[in-house]
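Thread amino acids onto this structure.
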């Protein structure tokens, strides 16, 4: 596939293949490669998938892998259900929970990146290939922008933000007594007895403390991620492919390489296992369970959806797609300790347990250099900073950042040229903190000078 602007030709080297799921070039590179910037790679400006039919060199297809290459995936991430099968997550029949507006010029907020560079918030969004951002302060929209293929009512891939929804559902089931966190995984999914999860507890799986032999290193053609992606239908398969064709078939093949509970080993397959557990514990499909417990209660504007495998199994590790304002509504629910839209949606003790974080020493074994002092609990990333901030994270820059002290929620979609967040965090995390500080300063100034 060839996609180019008038000013920039995207060479074969620049469009290095990246599947729509969990490619992390960061593991194999010591310095960031050069890619076209956000404006040069803008799918609208480059007329990607425009026309009836679009020109061949502007067409993104699943079958030949072109939709999963940069910069074409800057269009694809906002159109996954046009490329892959999906399962609807219903918003229900209730009214939309309106988000009041009190617009602020946050784009000019200044920040200093982890690398010492100075820039504005608007510049940070461009540097990190944002597709859209919503900032809430005290429940009001103070800043909302869309770029590229992003649009207010268009769902976007959440990738690993999905995990935070699954972790929340699992935690709610624990609170309801429908899931025993101390029980072995095989109590709910005996099919995993001979796998890496055969001696793992539900709690260990929820906190990513499973040492499975599983790699997401795309530099390795034998990495397990390839069969995971084929099994889930994220990438096309060759006619002679004989491997697993569903998530269930793949998960039972995973083997252990160390004892559970000793290291933090973040990977997508463990989230898929927890998704399997919650479905077994409730007898409900993941899409229906999420709709019943959360999505139909937050006053969402739009139905959401999961991408699914060949037998309709939702990807609990990275397949959830939603609109940005609806993601912000979920974040506001979390900020208010589970209460939103006039009801207690998530029990307060559940939110408090998830956001207290986990063992910082075990988290440090994961080697996340941009997240010093952080921890992890129930698929939420916890900063342990003095604001008590925590977040859901997804590759290519997806984020739901909740700052209780600043009374702020930031929801962001992106299509960064590199999947791994180590290339995103040095700009994005200081940007979120700078906006939080600005909102707190303005609140304090208003308190001192009431109208």
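Threaded sequence (451 positions):
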């Amino acid at each position: 596939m060839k996609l180019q602007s008038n000013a920039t030709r995207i060479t074969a080297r620049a469009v290095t293949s990246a599947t729509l799921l969990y490619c992390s070039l960061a593991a194999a590179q010591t310095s960031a490669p050069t890619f076209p910037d956000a404006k040069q790679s803008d799918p609208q400006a480059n007329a990607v998938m425009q026309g009836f039919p679009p020109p061949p060199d502007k067409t993104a297809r699943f079958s030949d892998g072109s939709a999963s290459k940069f910069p074409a995936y800057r269009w694809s991430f906002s159109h996954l259900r046009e490329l892959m099968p999906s399962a609807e997550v219903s918003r229900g029949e209730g009214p939309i929970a309106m988000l009041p507006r009190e617009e602020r010029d946050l784009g000019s907020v200044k920040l200093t990146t982890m690398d010492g560079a100075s820039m504005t918030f608007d510049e940070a969004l461009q540097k990190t290939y944002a597709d859209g951002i919503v900032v809430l302060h005290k429940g009001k929209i103070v800043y909302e922008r869309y770029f590229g293929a992003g649009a207010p009512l268009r769902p976007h891939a959440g990738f690993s933000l999905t995990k935070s929804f699954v972790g929340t559902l699992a935690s709610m089931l624990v609170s309801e007594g429908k899931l025993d966190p101390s029980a072995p995984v095989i109590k709910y999914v005996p099919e995993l007895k001979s796998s890496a999860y055969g001696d793992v507890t539900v709690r260990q799986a929820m906190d990513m403390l499973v040492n499975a032999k599983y790699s997401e290193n795309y530099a390795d053609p034998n990495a397990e991620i390839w069969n995971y992606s084929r099994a889930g239908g994220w990438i096309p398969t060759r006619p002679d492919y004989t491997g697993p064709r569903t998530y269930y078939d793949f998960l039972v093949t995973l083997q252990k390489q160390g004892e559970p509970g000793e290291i933090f080993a973040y990977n997508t397959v463990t989230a898929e296992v927890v998704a399997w557990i919650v479905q077994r514990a409730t007898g409900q499909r993941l899409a229906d369970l999420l709709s019943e417990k959360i999505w139909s209660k937050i006053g969402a504007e739009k139905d959401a959806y999961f991408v699914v495998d060949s037998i309709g199994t939702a990807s609990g590790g990275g397949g959830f797609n939603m609109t940005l304002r609806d993601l912000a509504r979920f974040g506001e629910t979390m900020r208010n300790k589970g209460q939103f839209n006039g009801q207690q949606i998530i029990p307060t003790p559940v939110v408090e347990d998830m956001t207290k974080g986990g063992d910082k020493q075990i988290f440090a074994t994961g080697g996340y250099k941009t997240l010093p002092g952080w921890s992890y609990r129930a698929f939420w990333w916890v900063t342990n900073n003095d604001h008590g901030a925590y977040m859901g994270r997804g590759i290519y820059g997806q984020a739901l950042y909740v700052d209780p002290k600043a009374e702020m929620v930031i929801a962001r979609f992106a299509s960064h040229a590199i999947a791994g967040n180590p290339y995103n965090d040095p700009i994005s995390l200081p940007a979120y903190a700078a906006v939080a500080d600005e909102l707190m300063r303005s609140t304090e100034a208003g308190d001192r000078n009431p109208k």
